[in-house]
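Entry 14. Structure prediction run on the chain below.
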Amino acid sequence: VVAGPRGLRPTWLKPRDQRDATPLAGTDGVRNFTFSPDGRWIAFAAGIELRKLPVTGGAAVPISDSVSNFQSIAWLDDGTIVYVVPGFRAMVQVSEGGGARRVVWSDSAASLAHITPLPGGRGVLFTRCRGGCAEADLYVLDLKKRETKLVQSGALKGFYAPTGHVVYVRHDGALLALPFDLDRLEVRGTPVPVREGVSLLDAVYPLIS
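Output returned:
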């Protein structure tokens, strides 16, 4: 588990099988980060630069630039990273080793946030926000076809679970699981309540419009 307190304090790492957490050097004030699929690295936004850092410690490695400082990085298991650029209007994809980046989706009508990966490098889940995320809908982006589909209206953030469900959070703190076809990248059932009272840290960010 990684937890980053507000302000200019560092992000902390707490393994699930250990009691104590340790700070990660070079992560002061970081709010936008994600784990690599193998759990050995974290990718994070340092200003507008995308960097990666071994969880065992060491020097951060630059990957790319023009990354948003809000929750918007997804590390896919095909060795690429998708992230939102400043302004929240476009997503780009870059190799985990750096190099050229390409725009994979842009949206002039809404802001993009809360990207999470799908297995096989097939695509990502993301949120389209309007009105400071007062209105938010969960979408899926097919990275091969460059097409999007609505997954669930009124969903603030979603994750794919190995059970074949997209688990998502609503503004009211309800957590629900929605059956999802990973081959077709589409919903195949109705949502099932999981629990209530879930808090999503930094779910609403004042720069999103």
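Residues 130 and 209 are 5 Å apart (CA to CA).
Filed with the rest of this week's runs.
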